[in-house]
Amino acid sequence: MRYFRSEVLLGSLLVSVGVLPAAPLTPNAALAPNMMPLPAHWESRPGELAIGNDFQVAFIGYRDARLNDAVQRFTDRLSRQTGIPFFPKGTLASLTIECLGAAPTYPKPGEDEAYQLEVTGNGATLRAKTTTGILRGLETFLQLAGPGERGMRVPAIHIEDQPRFPWRGLMLDVSRHWMPAPVVFRTLDGMTSVKLNVFHWHLSDDQGFRVESKSFPKLQQLGSDGHFYSQQTVKEVVAYAADRGIRVIPEFDIPGHTSSWLAAYPDLASMPGTYSIERTWGIFHPVLDPTREQTYTFLDTLIGEMAALFPDPYFHIGGDEVDDADWKASASIQKFEQAHQIKSSHELQAYFNHRVQAILQKYGKTMVGWDEVIEPGLARDTVIQSWRGAESLSDAARKGYRAILSGGYYLDHLKPASEHYAVDPLAGDAAKLSPSEAARILGGEACMWTEYASPETVDSRLWPRLAAIAERFWSPQDIRDTGSMYARLSFVTRLLAFAGVENRSNFVPMLDRLTGNRGSLYEASALIDLADAVEALGIVGRRDEHKYSSLVPLNRLVDAARPESEPARRLTLSVEAWLAAPTQDTGSLIRQQLLTWAMTPVALHELGSGNYLLTELLPVADNLGHVGDIGIKALDFLDKRQSPPDGWAASQLQALTEYEKPKAEIRLAAVRPVRLLVEALASNPGSVKPVTR
């Protein structure tokens, strides 16, 4: 790729970058272009910028190797996204980048991420004070690029954008189920696409210690099953993230969740014994002994080693879910508490946190902890991560601590995107904070715990719902239109594939494995129809159904199925529209989907013989068939303006309630649109207007 330099627009950059117009542009989410997160301000203009083989980028002002690399990634992806190979020639720029200066070599909390993007029929200009703002604007340009009436193009638009919160993160647990480096790299690419800027790397827990330690090599030798990141890989991840404007914050969970530590160094435990890494999930008794100097000597050396790998000023110590059973059972620990007038396990953990905080300060790090770490005397520069919700978040802010919200953003619960989208760091109890207290809310982090996720499935648990959360962190608070969010989320889902995210690409291969690669295309497509009609249960629904461990393969339909059924959601919208204003086209589309569901059991029963992975799904398929039949009959009654037999609607609603109950750890989302049809029939069978032909 060749680049061309021009100085013509530099003067305008000095005046305009970072200055909002006197009359702010008002975003209207209902009319928004396909962008996520939505910009702070935009205005659509007439016209479009054509994208052809001659697409090229020019620079004005500051330019460095990091910016060159970012533009190379941008053009490579734009080429993949449009399917157009670029052969730039001449000196006419399609996109001109105006950058005033360098961003920090390593991203800093609260750095300037603002940018302006102007697209006309003659070209586009992207302006920012620093490289980081350019990075954010390039992602916006990529989201705007797509097919138009005459070819690939970017619609004419004026955008002035900056984030609402400085801390917009994702916590990825790689301890419970190991996530190899390629998973981490593509997750960072996805984060870049939606302007997230903090990667919180949960690197140790009871099930594994995942980083090479040269000071204490037994940590990875005995505490990881051989699955850990070398220090070189850690450096590569940190550099990869930094190039994309993403900070990397490590978490080493202490003093609880440390079985993997104690498997290697049992002398650190509160009770004598032999320990091993845990294979199951939960809260376990083994914890570090906070009363022995040996513990702090060990932590000083380890934290010093890890601090050198992670340049971010913040270091996460976990601090959550500490089981104090061993503390209470240890005579030496009880004696220590009496000698130091420590009256409870909470006070003992506070003592531990103070000691660890001093170690972190020694290495230039600021402590981050889950909200359990708040105790009297905790240093005021500590950042509190609230996993228990708005109340603990606002409590931290009132007590003078900076805080980030994770409660409501737990992706492993597999809640719909709309539920996460409705959670706001400054809503609920936090809305009652004074301006100075509210300023301590830095933003939030989505959390992806991996008890029920593997490298093959984690992308579908992250994406696309993480994009909706990213919008909550970036966009203005009044951007809340759920319908607009879903319309744009559908677009972003497909766009993420060009960034390397695998939330869609693993779906069909996993279903093919379920079939044993047997059966006809018709039978295999029936399994796809079933998978599209269901939703996987999250941790709450799965943990009580079977005894899971890290050795149980995640290869069933619940693992392939998505957290949210897009076909069921779209059919629900179609039913709502048809009930309000019936048309033949909409009615035909509804009927076609219902017929597909009604026919699904036939093919799956043929395919499922002798296949244990499909046997558990046959009752679900049967229920889907019944749901399709009920929907067709209800549609017929409504379409013909006929009343069903007495009691029919009530009995069908009762049946639908039964069909919706989870089986095989999946929920039949297809029930929702059919219930709407039956409820309309039950309330007033004559209320549906005649079909418009």
Helix content: 40-55%
Question: How many runs of DSSP E, i.e. beta strands?
Answer: 19
Quaternary assembly: single chain
End-to-end gap: 55 Å
Which structural class is indicated by helix and strand composition? alpha/beta
Strand content: 15-25%
Helix count from the secondary structure assignment: 27
Mean residue pLDDT? 92
Principal-axes geometry comes out as globular
- Tell me the Rg in angstroms: 28 Å
Low-confidence stretches: 1-26
Sheet with the most strands?
A: 8 strands, mixed
Describe the structure concisely.
By secondary structure, this protein is α/β, with parallel strands linked by helices. The model is unreliable at 1-26 (pLDDT under 50).
Question: Would you write up a description of this structure?
Answer:
The protein has 693 residues and is an alpha/beta fold. It is 42% helix and 15% strand. It has 27 helices and 19 strands. The strands form 3 sheets. Strands 1, 2, 3, 4, 5, 6, 7 and 8 form an 8-stranded mixed beta sheet that branches. An 8-stranded parallel beta barrel has the order 9-10-12-13-14-15-16-17, surrounded by 4 helices. Strands 18-19 form a two-stranded antiparallel ribbon. α19 (521-532) crosses α23, α22 packs antiparallel against α23 (584-607) and α22 runs parallel beside α27. The longest helix has 24 residues, at 584-607. The radius of gyration is 28 Å and the shape is globular.
